[in-house]
Design a protein that fits this description.
single chain, 106 residues, 4 helices, 78% helix, Small_drug/metabolite_transptr
Length: 106
């Protein structure tokens, strides 16, 4: 259950990062409100997952989901560049997330 909650927290992190971009420096009310709501939800779910998952693992997975998710969203929706180095960096981050998950005792 903690892993599912953690993944959801990571998805909410992607949403708040995207809505922060849309808020144009918090000058637009609806994206600003979305940012605040999803930041709170993301942190609440992360803290819930940390009840049973180790700090290092939970925080790494949560932030990694947000980083890679925001990167992909930037490319797919915002038209940001998909250079070799950026894609390689995302692959390395994803590999680190997988290694972190695999290092957890069953």
């Amino acid at each position: 259950m903690a892993w599912m909650v953690l993944v959801l927290a990571g998805i909410f992190e992607i949403i708040w990062a995207y809505s922060m971009k849309l808020s144009a420096g918090f000058s637009k009310p609806v994206p600003t409100l979305m940012t605040v709501v999803f930041v709170i939800l993301s942190f609440l779910l992360l803290s819930y997952a940390m009840r049973t998952l180790p700090l290092g693992t939970a925080y790494t997975i949560w932030s990694g989901i947000g980083v890679v998710g925001a990167f992909l969203l930037g490319i797919l929706i915002l038209g940001e560049q998909a250079t070799f180095m950026r894609i390689l960096a995302a692959i390395l981050i994803t590999a680190g997330l997988l290694l972190m998950k695999l290092s957890e005792p069953s």
